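Consider the subject:
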Amino acid sequence: MQIDYSGQTVLITGAAGGLGRAMADRYREMGANLVLSDLNPDAIPTCSRTLTTLCDVTDAGSVRAMVKAGVDRFGPLDVAVNNAGISGPFGKFMDLSAADWNSLLSINLTGLFNCLQAEVPQMREAGRILNLSSLAGVAGAPGLAAYAATKHGVLGLTRSLAHELRKQQIRVNALCPSFTDTPMLDAMGPEKSRFHTPLNAMGRFGTANEMADAALWITSRENSFMTGQAISLDGGISAL
């Protein structure tokens, strides 16, 4: 199946590195007009079909300005990929500070709330939304309990909006990667080795390109009957 995004407007948050950058590259290759945002927009590669902008997803005004800039440049949104997020520190829940808890909530959950509220009114009928959750949004994550709580929240929003937005035929799904070889995982330092698990049937971390290819299909016009789903790309971990 050939997936073509020519003439379609795709918005991606957290586009400067890791999954966001890989997804931006793949949508660009497929012909999309891109609205790419990050706290570090200078790190986002650009082309004539790309608008890059600074955006803090915890600030609703910043998000609205980003969406408006994209719509003013390319027209209504066809696809929104809500990718911005953080993992937080690795450690026991009882050692987690209130500041770290609030930071995770404000970026991973309130940030998604801000994005969705700004994006939905600017979407074409039959638009597509992809929210980045995690395997930690499907199962528990010892050592990353707060992160898991926010990613479970992402799935709750995804499933609820899939039904709320059905009259506009806007499809809403979530991608749930497991441990993927990105800067976010590298930031775990020595703890990274903990995430090699015998439950992973593939015996390796996922790659950013594998997640980007999944995003292309999930948000494509051809994938027209999927909504409200949490798609796990986890090397088989959730199969047991």
User: Anything to note?
Assistant: The chain has one domain: 9-239. The longest helix spans residues 98-119. The CA atoms of residues 3 and 221 lie 8 Å apart.
